[in-house]
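Feature request disguised as a bug: please show the residue count (173) next to Plasmolipin in the output. Example input:
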Amino acid sequence: MAGLPGATRGRSASPGTPPALDGTFLCSPLGGLMGTQAVLGLLVWSLIAATTYHLHAAYGWVMFVALFCWILTLLFFMTYLLQLQLKFYVIPWPLVLMIYNAVATVLYITAFITCAAAVQPTSWRQWDYNRRAAASFFACLTMIIYGVSTFFSFRAWKGLGSNAATSQVTDHA
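Example output, currently without the count:
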């Protein structure tokens, strides 16, 4: 759990104590990436929602991916902000976060490709074209941020860059 907020502290949060805000989480790389994911995801789904997306099946998929990932990102953000991961210590949070980020990256790859391919420059409604093109751009940025989060989540799950030699020495000592 190295690299995740609350990982260096002991599991002193008992189930009966109220959740406390973790101010250091907001300044951590994980907090910054989750905040960026939430803002960019909001931009993607709000830009698509402002068009006539219901007339095109491709934008329904983009809307689903953007809303699904946005809601789950907000749930993970609140979980870490309120230090709820310390109360549910049975759940392997670094692994869960890594799997979520990897799945969200793959979903956003499909959403970006779908959104970019469905933008029609000869659309008779110019405002729909601009919004869909902008949504495609922000979907690409969101995909990249989820990919970066997957990388950092993987490093946190594996122990933040410790090598096999040092872990074997400390395990046997």
